[in-house]
Amino acid sequence: MTAIDSSLPPQEPDAISAGTTATTAVQGRGRIPWRFLGNRALFYLFTLWAAITINFFVPRMMKGDAVDQYLARNRNVSPEAAEALRALLGLDTDKSLLQQYFEYWNLLLHGDLGVSLLHGLRPVTEVISQALPWTVGLVGFATLVAFAIGTIGGAIVGWRRGSRLDALIPITTFLSTIPYFWLGLLAIALFSVNLGWFPIGKAYGVGVTPEWSFEFIGEVIHHGFLPAATIIIASLGGWMLGMRNMMLTVLDEDYVMVAQAKGMPNDRVLWRYAARNAVLPQIQSFALSLGFIVGGTIVMEMVFSYPGVGKLLLDATNAKDYALMQGVFLVITLSVLLANLLADVAYAFLDPRTRQTEA
């Protein structure tokens, strides 16, 4: 036997035995894409700074302010009291916009969103915290149900293309084209006025004190069923149409044909191969919907007199209550950015191409 020369450089491993780049990416499928997530986090931090800056300057470019609106409703306020109110709200003219901007950031970092003149100088955080659960509970639940039904239904319709199920697409699309306020008014006229099945509006009955009891929860569900149903009907068509179109694209891919050629059960091919890849674009849209849940549906809350964040924002805008407007916009911005960040994380784990790009 010949001895192995130790002076020779180590040989490169065979490319086939070591695996290609794609094989290495598949083998490292469980690795967390830190670079991708870090880049997205930096992008969202910059977006948050820009949104907060715009949120500060835009209301101050409007004509008049909250004190002017308050003085128009209360003629007996002295000039000294008006100046004190402006100083309390951070609207005093003795400070420049840049000074007010830095003070706003200082208060914001300490969790102080100011006080609302519209609500009797109550803290903005307290006002928003009372309206936020109603919007998240109603609009959030309706959005989740609409997304689940539309995505599953669209996947089934796309899988069985050419069948009678295709009739669901134009029906749901037509319902989505109806203006929401008109759909809500029709629902109130039919189910509340004529049939008397549901209350006309509000989150609970007049004179009822909110409490954690089965009676109160049942009343909240009874009052919220009609607005939730109209939200689901109005948004179902978009989810179903989008998922159905993506299914038609995915079904022509090679991996779906190979899975069917191997004799895999249709249910497994549908849910583990076709629907799993077709749902990826839906995630971004769903993230945006989750973010805008906090903003609420202003039209819905106006039609059904629902005490949510959307109506709160509309009242604050009409009264030019800067502190309340900025607080609501900040909550909406944070919710949208957080929802998009979570969607990017989910996308990175569901789509191997994201991890392969980092590798």
TrEMBL record:
Membrane-related topology note: Multi-pass membrane protein
Compartments where located: Cell membrane; Membrane
Ranges that cross the membrane: 41-58, 131-159, 180-200, 220-241, 286-307, 327-350
Chain spans, region Disordered: 1-20
Domain of life where this protein originates: Bacteria
Pfam families linked: BPD_transp_1
Keyword terms: Membrane, Transmembrane, Transmembrane helix, Transport
Gene3D superfamilies in alphabetical order: MetI-like
Domain ABC transmembrane type-1: 132-343
Main location: membrane
Family affiliation: Belongs to the binding-protein-dependent transport system permease family.
Protein name, as recorded: ABC transporter permease
Native source organism of the sequence: Microbacterium helvum
